[in-house]
UniProtKB/TrEMBL annotation:
<dbReference type="InterPro" id="IPR015422">
    <property type="entry name" value="PyrdxlP-dep_Trfase_small"/>
</dbReference>
<dbReference type="GO" id="GO:0019450">
    <property type="term" value="P:L-cysteine catabolic process to pyruvate"/>
</dbReference>
<keyword id="KW-0456">Lyase</keyword>
<dbReference type="InterPro" id="IPR000277">
    <property type="entry name" value="Cys/Met-Metab_PyrdxlP-dep_enz"/>
</dbReference>
<keyword id="KW-0663">Pyridoxal phosphate</keyword>
<dbReference type="Pfam" id="PF01053">
    <property type="entry name" value="Cys_Met_Meta_PP"/>
</dbReference>
<comment type="similarity">
    <text>Belongs to the trans-sulfuration enzymes family.</text>
</comment>
<dbReference type="GO" id="GO:0047804">
    <property type="term" value="F:cysteine-S-conjugate beta-lyase activity"/>
</dbReference>
<dbReference type="GO" id="GO:0030170">
    <property type="term" value="F:pyridoxal phosphate binding"/>
</dbReference>
<dbReference type="GO" id="GO:0019346">
    <property type="term" value="P:transsulfuration"/>
</dbReference>
<dbReference type="InterPro" id="IPR006233">
    <property type="entry name" value="Cys_b_lyase_bac"/>
</dbReference>
<dbReference type="InterPro" id="IPR015421">
    <property type="entry name" value="PyrdxlP-dep_Trfase_major"/>
</dbReference>
<dbReference type="InterPro" id="IPR015424">
    <property type="entry name" value="PyrdxlP-dep_Trfase"/>
</dbReference>
<protein>
    <submittedName>
        <fullName>Cystathionine beta-lyase</fullName>
        <ecNumber>4.4.1.8</ecNumber>
    </submittedName>
</protein>
<feature type="modified residue" description="N6-(pyridoxal phosphate)lysine">
    <location>
        <position position="208"/>
    </location>
</feature>
Amino acid sequence: MATQLIHHPYRAPAAFDAVPVGVYKASTVLFPNVAAVRARRWQDKSGYTYGLHGTPTTFTLEERIATLEGGRHCVLAPSGLAAIALVDLALLRAGDEVLLPDNAYGPNKALAAHELAHWGIGFRIYDPMDPADLAAAITPRTRLVWLEAAGSVTLEFPDLPALLAVVRQANAAREVPIVTALDDTWGAGIALRPFELGVDIALQALTKYPSGGADVLMGAVVTRDDALHQTLLMTHMRLGLGVGANDAEAVLRGLPSLPLRYQAQDASARALASWMQDQPRVARVFHPALPDSPGHAAWRRDARAAAALFSVVFDDAVSAAQVDAFCDALRCFRLGYSWAGPMSLCMPYEMPPLRQRPWRHAPHLVRFAVGLEDIEDLRADLAQAMHVLA
Ligand SMILES: *Cc1c(COP(=O)(O)O)cnc(C)c1O
């Protein structure tokens, strides 16, 4: 019986077809004979060799994310941050430099400042709102330029075509071109067309919009260029960056509703951001669709939508303790990291230590991530918490 429970002769008919993709789980993948072992290739998705190298579930998710971003290839990583690390490790070697915008996702900067620095890879921070500052940061050692739109926490929207033109101009005089990588978690494949703008790599934390459930951690690295994809794929293999089949299935389940969720959260976030602007004690609201938010013109020209995020700084008269009390007084907006899930979230940040360039506003900022609740409940929640600011 023990053997029969493993080597069972029944094979389900192969023609099963349904709306969801099957959840295929495997470490071992079986081969019918040695010739098949020798012939089979996973690199081009023509076959299966080992669970880490792909299953029908992960191949399908990769293809769908590549389509979402307008690319041709995709590799999956166990988190958005792991996807960022994969790009760094695949492309950088000792002596190289990587350039990061001052408002990059914080852990991307921390990885550069710690592990990459330990390995002899330099990093420089540039002002994403000033293409001339990027031009000045490029040296013969520059190998990789990270871009992010909108910026993390502060949501400035950079002039991506101008930044990419700076890199293109530098590349004209170089043998080994600088690679550009856009962290497109905010755009999620909906708001921006990264490859039409001219980036080499578009990365997403699938943790956010594609999952949409606040239940999965995953990242994706999308490319159009075959050679660049092969470089990423080989590093991905050597690092052993697998994702679980159940997690891949959860993201596949989230994808069909992604455009609707993005649109719904965009509408709510815009409405709440502009309402917030009119509240007493509010000094500044950051959301790229607001006309006085940094980079609004670039956003209007290059983006088709905006994500669920807006950030607020209060009057100088509002103390740090009052900002904390405001966050504690909220009921619908819960305290927590991440965003693009069903539940609205908020998080206070002390800005000056997060930025290398001077921060010209009150130091305490609150970032809001709008969920899928009824917008009137969210507005009422923000309104009732205002009393602690008086
Ligand atoms: C959340 C996030 C990441 C990291 O994603 P994890 O899956 O949480 O590691 C990377 N970039 C941006 C812009 C993010 O918002």
